[in-house]
Design a protein that fits this description.
Chain lengths: ~270, ~270
DNA sequence: TCCAATTTGTACGTATGTATT
DNA sequence: CAATACATACGTACAAATTGG
């Protein structure tokens, strides 16, 4: 099925590999008595493929060369090629499809934020997606110095910690960890958070509307605990959205961190004022 | 098991190891004839420390137990402890201070976005920070399918690629990679981007104002190339802000990806409409 | 429906260089 | 220096999924 092209040297070269790959080379100086130990071969190959994706040379959902093609292109054993690809699968950049090939991973669900305080329930409902909420942890504890500062309460005040994992199609998508100000919101611990959205429960218990939100984006390595919660590799990069949410009277009601699984993203639109 | 007694503020420093550490244990079943090979010891210790930070038990800028304290607490060799800490330093979570100790890394610069199209120059000027812009790459090339789709031009149309690295205090902070629509903006390649902000140059060349911005946040592993550009570890998690920027007539003028070094973050405020 | 080719998934074995003991 | 353990790299073989004739 692969078209063949006659090169100037007169040899036939496979169209796919010649079109997709550039002139990158693998450094094999590990075993020689060299001064600089070059990285492992599978790491070098992963670097090459990663840059193809980051540089938009290999677009989303496109098929990358087969393991066999990469073997002959870089003169590597199949195990080495598979190991390189596995690194990128764990990062969420590639997806293997048995019998078909390996593909650049499609972006996952986009979550709208920015226009209003971020509510997972609201944004997913708008997209018509079905999701399940699991309460992984929930307890009441005295506030640590960090938590107290963010919630603007005295250290030692009772606060509630809530960890929810949201799943779409049985797959975990995000993990939300909330610290809740019980002083402004008593009665909250009696809520069934698998049914009632947190925003609704907070507004019901506090008797006031949610109004302000301060958002903070950063990136982190998932680590063991969140890797297990999200079903991704420990070494994967996850997106963090930290939010401080206030009621109409500017009292802080929630300090939360949302961990997005690799592939998930958050979108915002902005308009420059005239 | 989850409730934790809060000690007085002073005791956090005086009785570091007992107050700061919990009851975590290291699994040493690697060498025994066990069925499940447990992770390497330094990885397990890094996991324990990472969760202390992620769970806000160890606040920003606080001193973590000394290498010697960690040695005796977990019965590990100093090399193993140092290797664990190095992992977290590379992730940007910890910072070593020679002769003083190891500390939870402070957050870096916060970049405001959301209210208006994101301009690094404008937001940093507001904070009174001095920065330097280096043009790492700049060329004109026919648009690949991906680039053409985002810029809404025909594939093969000439577009400009621009990679700028911004530094504060001599340290790289972010890397901005822009694909520019030359059809709407001829004359752009003659600009000195170390002096004139891209937003100004675009508005000057196109004769129209920038008005709309679509933003997209996600997280990625830095990789070799961007690790070198940003001066961080290849395996570090970096924040990506992908932007599509349009002029008043809704023509796409720029499709850019901003790579933030670990520790940098982007902040936004939102208000719920009544 | 069946078959052949392609591609990924899995499980071995061997050799070699490095690091530790 | 020798023994051991480990990571890296290569090679082979076969199973399972997919596609197209």
């Amino acid at each position: 099925m692969t078209a063949r092209v006659l090169k100037s040297e007169g040899s036939f070269i496979d169209d796919a590999s010649s079109a997709l790959m550039g002139d990158e080379t693998i450094d094999r100086s590990r075993h020689a008595g060299d001064s600089k130990p070059s990285p492992a071969l599978h790491v070098q190959l992963a670097d090459i493929i990663r840059e193809k994706i980051y540089g938009h040379e290999w677009g989303s959902n496109s098929k990358i060369p087969s393991e066999h093609e990469l073997m002959v292109r870089f003169d590597l054993a199949r195990g080495t090629v598979r190991r390189a690809i596995s690194l990128l699968v764990d990062e969420g950049l590639l997806a293997r499809r048995h019998g078909k090939g390996t593909f650049v991973a499609e972006p996952g669900i986009s979550h709208a934020a920015g226009a209003r305080p971020f509510s997972f329930a609201a944004t997913l409902h708008e997209q018509g997606k079905d999701f399940v909420t699991r309460v992984a942890d929930a307890w009441v504890t005295p506030a640590s110095p960090d938590v107290a500062r963010e919630l603007e309460v005295a250290p030692g005040t009772d606060v509630m910690f809530l960890r929810r994992v949201r799943s779409v199609d049985g797959e975990p998508i995000m993990c939300q960890e909330s610290w809740l100000n019980l002083s402004e919101c008593p009665g909250l611990p009696d809520t069934d958070f698998t049914q009632e959205p947190l925003f609704d429960a907070v507004q019901r218990c506090s008797g006031r509307k949610i109004k302000y939100s301060h958002m903070h984006y950063c990136a982190r390595i998932a680590g063991k605990e969140h890797g297990e919660l999200l079903g991704c590799d420990e070494a994967a990069a996850v997106l963090l959205l930290e939010q401080t949410i206030r009621l109409v009277d500017k009292k802080v009601i929630e300090w939360s961190t949302t961990w997005f699984k690799p592939g998930q993203s958050v979108v915002t639109d902005a308009v420059q004022p005239d």
